[in-house]
């Protein structure tokens, strides 16, 4: 059993050099720490990351430090005791970092890996989803695709093999971008994806007709994160590259053509975050593609329930710090499995060295793991997943 003897918090910088929180706990089995990431493309319905602000949450953790000492923590569901203490006093980032540090302490005390606290029978690894070319709010270039991410999903069951395939593919795409895009300078965006001045259709043409050209059996599936809420204003989708407006009906028609013409497998946030109906219409038309909800659901059980009732999606993004509570993450994952909805555990654009996301994804038996392709702090999370893969083969 674990007993917390003290807790503290401090500010660290994420991969975008923005402030986030790191929490440290002292326990009877040692000291443990964990940090939370920051999102840039933030859904309107996400939980507030801090109660008032980061400094305020740091002070609150200090005040509550002694309150945890009475609690005995032995299993994952014991996180409820911690949540009962901090309820409504701290934000989602702080809850996530605190609970992550506690899970690490419980794993150490029980000589287990963190994922085993969630489900010791976990045996299926998620498939990698890699952000290869970027646009939208994650790219700071003046001219860029309106869609936020262009994704590669290797057709491989091995995480290590998928990781290698994605890295090779990303280099290949860089070469093609140099040929096709005269302004391309091999620069990367917030999520370490290539920045380009091409529009979304041109990027997809490049990926399909150049990168996958001549492949009888393509080794990758292609996906997009439209992040439609980021350019939805005054009841229209306001495209900048090229400059035009699309109504919801026109957006539906445009996306339908892209899915058909480019055989898209994965389509995330195709419409703005309140449009459950258009998502449902798209899913009905393309039931064999993954129609994925992120801003639509924001790892929120009630919104997810609504999306299921309205048949809006067949896959859901899980970002633990959107909701904070890992118990709520568990509820969302259980609801997904009960309704045969695919689970996609995802990083954020402002990441830290923290790699517990891999354990959570494997423990909750996610179908996909969306965490960039290589470089910066994202690679550590994929490497942790490869470690888990190796441990299963021993």
Summarize this entry quickly:
The protein is of the alpha/beta class. Helices cover 38% and strands 21% of the residues.
Could you please describe the fold and organization of this structure?
There is one protein chain. The mean pLDDT is 95. The protein folds into two domains: 2-111, Enolase-like, N-terminal domain (Enolase-like, domain 1); 127-393, Alpha-Beta Barrel (TIM Barrel). α5 packs across α6 (200-211) and α12 (356-363) crosses α13 (378-393). The chain has helices at residues 54-64, 79-86, 92-109, 114-118, 159-180, 200-211, 248-262, 276-285, 301-309, 320-323, 326-338, 356-363, 378-393; strands at 2-13, 19-27, 30-35, 72-73, 127-134, 149-154, 194-195, 220-225, 232-233, 236-240, 243-246, 266-268, 290-293, 315-318, 342-346, 368-370. With 394 residues, it is an alpha/beta fold. It contains 13 helices and 16 strands. The strands form three sheets. The protein has an eight-stranded mixed beta barrel with strand order 5-6-8-12-13-14-15-16, surrounded by five helices. A four-stranded antiparallel β-sheet has the order 3-2-1-4, with helices on both faces.
């Amino acid at each position: 059993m674990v007993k917390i003897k003290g807790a503290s918090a401090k500010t660290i910088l994420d991969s975008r050099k923005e402030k986030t929180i790191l929490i440290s706990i002292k326990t009877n089995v040692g000291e443990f720490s964990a940090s939370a990431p920051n999102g840039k493309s933030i859904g309107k319905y996400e939980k507030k990351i801090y109660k008032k602000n980061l400094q305020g949450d740091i002070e609150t953790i200090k005040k509550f430090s002694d309150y945890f000492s009475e609690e005995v923590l032995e299993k994952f569901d014991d996180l409820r005791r911690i949540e009962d203490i901090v309820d409504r006093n701290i934000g989602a980032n702080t809850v996530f970092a605190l609970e992550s540090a506690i899970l690490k302490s419980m794993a150490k005390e029980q000589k287990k890996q963190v994922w085993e606290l969630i489900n010791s029978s976990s045996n299926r690894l998620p498939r990698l989803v890699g952000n290869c070319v970027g646009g939208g709010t994650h790219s700071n270039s003046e001219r860029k695709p309106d869609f936020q991410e262009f994704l590669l999903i290797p057709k491989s069951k091995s995480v290590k093999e998928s990781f290698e395939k994605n890295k090779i593919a990303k280099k290949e795409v860089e070469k093609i971008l140099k040929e096709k895009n005269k302004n391309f300078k091999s620069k990367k965006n917030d999520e370490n994806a290539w920045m380009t001045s091409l529009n979304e259709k041109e990027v997809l043409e490049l990926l399909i007709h150049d990168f996958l050209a001549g492949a009888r059996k393509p080794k990758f599936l292609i996906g997009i994160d439209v992040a439609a809420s980021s350019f939805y204003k005054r009841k229209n989708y306001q495209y900048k590259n090229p400059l035009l407006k699309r109504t919801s009906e026109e957006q539906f028609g445009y996306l339908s053509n892209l899915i058909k013409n480019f055989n898209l497998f994965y389509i995330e946030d195709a419409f703005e975050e309140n449009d459950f109906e258009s998502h449902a219409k798209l899913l009905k038309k393309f039931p064999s593609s993954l129609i994925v909800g992120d801003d639509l659901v924001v790892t929120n059980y009630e919104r997810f329930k609504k999306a299921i009732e309205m048949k809006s999606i067949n896959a859901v993004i899980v970002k633990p710090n959107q909701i904070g509570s890992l118990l709520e993450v568990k509820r969302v994952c259980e609801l997904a499995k009960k309704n045969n909805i695919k689970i996609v555990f995802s990083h954020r654009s402002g990441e830290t060295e923290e790699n517990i996301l891999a354990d959570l994804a494997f423990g909750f038996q996610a179908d996909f793991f969306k965490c960039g392709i290589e470089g910066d702090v994202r690679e550590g999370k994929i490497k942790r997943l490869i470690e888990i893969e190796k441990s299963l083969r021993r």
